Amino acid sequence: MERTRVLIVDDEPPARAKLKRFLAAEAGVEVVGEAESGTEAVVAIERLRPDLVFLDVQMPGLDGFGVLASLGEAPDSEPLPHVVFVTAFDEYALRAFEVNAVDYLLKPFDSARFRTALERAKGRLERRGGGDVERIAALLAQVRPRPEYLERLLVRGRDRAVFLELSQVRWIEAEQNYVRLHAAGGSHLVRGTLAALEERLDPRHFLRIHRSYIVNTTFVRELRPWSHGDYQMVLSDGTELMMSRRYRDRLPEAAF
After folding, report:
1. Does residue 217 sit in the same domain as residue 237?
2. Handedness of CA 131, 133, 139, 140 (dihedral sign)
């Protein structure tokens, strides 16, 4: 019978030592490596190809979820190994683990709970031969916190500065070292680049359609085919903007 090759990932040395001690007492298991950060974990998983990873969720920088996301996004990536999450998450988050049938260890755990998780993981390895990408993807969607996007932006006038609600911004255009935000009641000039602002906008509502334009899809009324694969986008106030074919593949993600 082949031995189960295990990688341990945790930023705390005592936690890694505990797992290593528990694993040393188990037959048919080989610890092939350790990692103390998410970045190290990605490299180790790609290099060592373990069957099973005991993966700490909460680590500074790249957390456990970030490790799996990085592996899943890599071109021509191998199937993910089976994962036993090691976590201190609260009861709400644990329900997400259970619903998606992902093994986890809640800190602090004892040898009996560890053995239960290990046996479950071994059983899944025998049945499937590797990690279940769909289950892990569902877990990520439920548990991993969403990025914090801008909701308001401070804009300055001649004699005062006010907060502009981005939900009221219809479209945004680049103007050299500035961006102009068009909203009901007028436009506002803010220093910065369109690319930098795009990263801080919620992609569920804001769509880059051109190197010079971002639109709030809430205000899109019509989309007309144009020449050479471009589109003409018409907003609710009658504004007409050109959508470059370069950005056409983003259309299925738009909320209109």
Report:
1. yes
2. positive
Residues 66 and 174 in one domain: no
Residue 167 in this model has a pLDDT that exceeds 90: yes
Last residue of a domain, one of 143, 178, 201: 143
Instruction: Compute the residue count for the chain.
Output: 256
Residue 235 has pLDDT above 70, yes or no: yes
Average pLDDT over residues 223-243: 89
Assign residue 189 the CATH number of its domain.
2.40.50.1020
Q: Are residues 113 and 186 in the same domain?
A: no
CA atoms within 13 A on the CB side of 237: 16
Average pLDDT over residues 103-120: 90
Q: Which of 143, 171, 189 is the last residue of a domain?
A: 143
Say yes or no: 162 and 243 in one domain.
yes
Examine the domain organization and report whether 29 and 119 are in the same domain: yes
- For the entire predicted model, the pTM comes to 0.56
How, if at all, do strands 104-106 and 82-87 pair?
parallel
Residue-range definition of the domain harbouring residue 82: 4-143
On whether both 21 and 130 belong to a single domain, the answer is: yes
